[in-house]
Amino acid sequence: MSEKSLIFVLDAQMPFVRHPDTPGRAEEAMLFNALSETWLPLLRSCASLESEGIPFRFALSISPTLCEMLDDPLLQERYVNHLDKSIEFGLSELERCAGSPEEREIIKQHLDRFQANRRDFAETYERNILKKIDYFALRGHIEILATAATSCFLPLYSDIPEALNAQIETGLTTYRRHFTAAPSGFWLPAMAWFNGCEATLRSYGFQYTFVDAHALLFADPVPWTGVYAPVTCENGFAVFARDAVTCRKIVGGGETQGYLASENYLDMDRDIGFELDESALSGLFDVRLGRRPTGFRYWRRYRSEIERNPAYRLDRAYAQVESDSTDFVEHVADLLGKASVIREGEPVSLVCALPATILGQQWQEGISWFEAVLRKTSADSRLSIAVPASCVGDRHSLARAEPRFSSWNSGGYAEEVLNSSNDWVYRYVRKATERMIDLAERFPDDTGLKERALNMAARELLLAQSMDWPIMMNESDRSEYARKRFEDSVRSFTVVYESLGSNFISTEWLTTTEKRDNLFPDVNYRVFSRKK
Question: Taking Cα atoms as reference points, which of 134, 216, 210 lies closest to residue 388?
Fold first, then answer.
């Protein structure tokens, strides 16, 4: 029997949001919600599987910016305060909903989750979940993939090799600080592939990456294996393609309704943080700083003219999880069985790559579904769960192909990061990139205050290159924040550039900026130097 492998890849990336002088900003909720709804529940599932001796494996790309925020004492302290306020708020919600037994039952469920999160985060993980992720990685359960320092859409810098090198090298330096094992795979932010990136990635020792299905289906030549086996480029670099059809079964798309849209699941769009008045929410956050999700949601997705506020039922949700996880495993087993016949017994694999936010943040029951799939797969003789490194195998047996430019954005290419709402940013960031390369060439051996300033310039440029800001500019409620963050980074870079030209650097300004944007403490501005 041929080997049939299911490969899960979770992409965890998040914009760097840190405001030391203004606590309570709505944007901080992105990190807190990720911890509460995705990371802590996911680690509990991993611990449960490990304690029961159930083999589980998946790949994880966790962005360096997210690593830096998870490791930040200030944000860790603020998250604990957020949990304390959420627990206290939940108790007040029990009193407010005293006349509604159904809502009180759901509130108790949310309270249990917040209390478990506080116990795990503050006591079990001592406020740093990266150590636990590294623990599972060392035991072979999680394969950590490297990625760019700041979620840069790399094809837009394909003509500036120094920018690519800086993003990759800074990301690698961050990984070495937080994790033990050296990554062998590289996650292209947004799965954005361009011709020639395989040479750059191979030069850093990476063995493989991932693209969306259409990158291979339009490849030259089109691999006869389709997306059910990795291919190799001319230089031997391996490329996996995610199965877009299988991913749509989960998240939906086109005419397909994904699992997460089931009428029995919690409606994640109806959070009381957007429904209660200012006085009711005052114990949790200041509404004047922006409304945000609280994690307290009481209704399921289904609505009708008769039943406008259908109460969430945990028993129905878990029954739906059981049904959807079984359907998914059957779907994957069927696809891999057919692919194995076409491959005449050669190993086949199916890559299911998802944003980590799908599990938990967009789909409350997603973590339970993921755990159920891992359990079912471990007991199914038709397929196995695997990580990418174990499926590259003998490259001589892999088909040869050159993937086409592509991404996993909804348009398939670059419409989300380059359009009429955000195209103005690139004239500034590309000019700043050219200037940073010039600075690295002009000041190759500087130390002291000048080196600190150059490193600060490198940090701000890396932040400005992030695609998070252009994508957020497409959203009306976050475009102003994204514009300001981008402009702040470009402005800070320019201050350093002009200060070096005038040979005067304000120590006070530099110290303040370092404290605000404290990511990548070991960044080296020389990563922007031209290769000799």
Answer: 210
Domain count, the chain: 2
State how far the alpha carbon of 104 is from the alpha carbons of 96, 173, 192, 194, in Å.
9, 48, 46, 52
CA 380, 384, 389 angle in degrees (round to 5)? 170
Same domain, 64 and 205: yes
Q: Which helix (H) or strand (E) holds 403?
A: none
- Confirm whether 328 is domain-assigned: yes
Domain span at 481: 425-528
Contact predicate 215/403, CB 8 Å: yes
Q: Are residues 124 and 13 in the same domain?
A: yes
Q: Which letter does DSSP use for residue 422 in this model?
A: T
For tokens 């109460």, what's the residue?
311
121 located within any domain: yes
Statement to judge: residues 213 and 264 lie in one domain: yes
- Residue carrying structure tokens 């592509």: 406
In a domain, 43, yes or no: no
DSSP string for 61-90? EE-HHHHHHHT-HHHHHHHHHHHHHHHHHH
Q: Are 266 and 233 in contact (CB under 8 A)?
A: no
Look at residues 365, 400, 435 and tell me which one is the last residue of a structural domain: 400
Residue position matching structure tokens 């047996």: 397
Please indicate, yes or no, whether residues 316 and 452 belong to a single structural domain of this protein.
no
Burial class of residue 56 (count of CB atoms within 10 Å of its CB; 0-12, 13-18, 19+): buried
In a domain, 260, yes or no: yes
Instruction: List beta partners, residue 210.
Output: 240
Pairing of strands 231-232, 238-241: antiparallel
Say how far apart CA 167 and CA 175 lie, in whole Å: 12
Task: Say whether both 304 and 156 belong to one domain.
Answer: yes
CATH number, domain at 495?
A: 1.20.1430.10
Q: How many CA atoms lie within 13 A of 31 on its CB side?
A: 27
Q: From 217, 163, 220, 213, select the one nearest 195 (Cα to Cα).
A: 220
| Same domain as 396, residue 494 | no
| Cα separation, 202 vs 208, whole angstroms | 8
Q: Model-level pTM greater than 0.85?
A: yes
Residue-wise pLDDT tens for the chain (532 aa)?
Answer: 368 999 999 999 999 999 999 999 999 999 999 999 999 999 999 999 999 999 999 999 999 999 999 999 999 999 999 999 999 999 999 999 999 898 999 999 999 999 999 999 999 999 999 999 999 999 999 999 999 999 999 999 999 999 999 999 999 999 999 999 999 999 999 999 999 999 999 999 999 999 999 999 999 888 888 899 999 999 999 999 999 999 999 999 877 789 999 999 999 999 999 999 999 999 999 999 999 999 999 999 876 666 666 889 999 999 999 999 999 999 999 999 999 998 888 899 999 999 999 999 999 999 999 999 999 999 999 999 999 999 887 666 788 999 999 999 999 999 999 999 999 999 999 999 999 999 999 999 999 999 999 999 999 999 999 999 999 999 988 999 999 999 999 999 999 999 998 888 999 999 999 999 999 999 999 999 998 6
Q: Residue 184's domain is classified under what CATH number? A: 3.20.110.10
311's CB contacts (< 8 A; 6+ apart) are 102, 103, 106, 298, 299, 300
